[in-house]
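[audit] Reproducing an earlier prediction to check determinism. Same input, same settings, fresh worker. If the tokens differ from the archived copy the diff job will pick it up downstream; this log only records the rerun itself.
[audit] input (381 residues):
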Amino acid sequence: MTSQFDLTDEQLQIQEMARAFTADRITPHAGEWDEKHIFPRDTIRAAAELGFASIYVSEESGGIGLGRLESALIMEAMAYGCPSTSAFISIHNMASWMIDRFGSPGVKDKYLPSLITMDRLASYCLTEPSSGSDAAALKTRAVRDGDDYIVTGTKQFISGGGENEIYVTMVRTGEEGPKGISCLVIEKDMPGVSFGAQEKKLGWHSQPTAAVILEQVRVPAENLVGGEGDGFRIAMMGLDGGRLNIGACSLGGAQRCLDEAIRYTKDRQQFGKPIADFQNTQFTLADMATELEAARALLYLAAAKVTAGAPDKTRFAAMAKRLATDTGSSVVDRALQLHGGYGYLQDYPIERFWRDLRVHSILEGTNQVMRMIVGRELTRQ
């Protein structure tokens, strides 16, 4: 009766490979990356050797051609060590997938080989200083000039900004609103591309974040991904998968903190016995575990729907992202509380996860926007 909910042997192998990589290459170093703001490029490139830079890039294009559930398993496993690094790899995968799914053969040949190996890293550029949740109001303008587009504008809060070589960028080529948006691949070294100062963030210290400034950048028209006016649709399709991955990163981080809390409460003695023996502690741990499993089940279901292209895939991706990220933050917060004053210290990993997971309810669409998406689809039925 339960076999329909079990992972396949292949999925279990993928999960175990990601866990082993995390235990070896991420977990032992994540605290230092956070403290010293180290961008672990070598580790990220090592992930590419396992295919983790092209998880759902097609095999025909050189990727490993997996589905969104397999991607969620990988992101969840890596986030057990470092949610920031796992999320960065997720964003690279999103940009690579857009090029593979919608790009012309010329664009694929130009960019995918180096993205699959992570010799070049990719960013996803949608948000602007004046258009966050209202993404369709973006102002970055691309004007056709012969065989090129001339691009001017600014993208804000870009993961990989200043470090990455490739920027999959949403630009306005036509009318106001979503129908006037197109997608261009812009390179770091193109004249007119510059970057703002690195943002000083609460968390996600292992990855760079900066504004991408575009001043009369001449971009070959052949770098158009999809057709003119397809950009907003492409961006939203990318976000379905991105939301699942960010939710998975919250699950992985929260699972780590639950495991840390169980270990700590079994060791910590108060009033002559381990605090794990107190009923209040057991109730708290029970709630954390139950809520985490419920969020995981919804996220895995949503991932299967996105892979299958189900009609309700966007609604389920939004529900799963909202629940997984809210639950993840709540679980980590309670894990910190169970650690007492020690949870507030950098000697323990809990405070790092608390900081890293906080942004997950904001990016890839705020959780308030997730509720809007779900509510809108429910009332249209």
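[audit] rerun output stored. Observation attached for the diff report: The first helix runs from residue 9 to 26.
[audit] end
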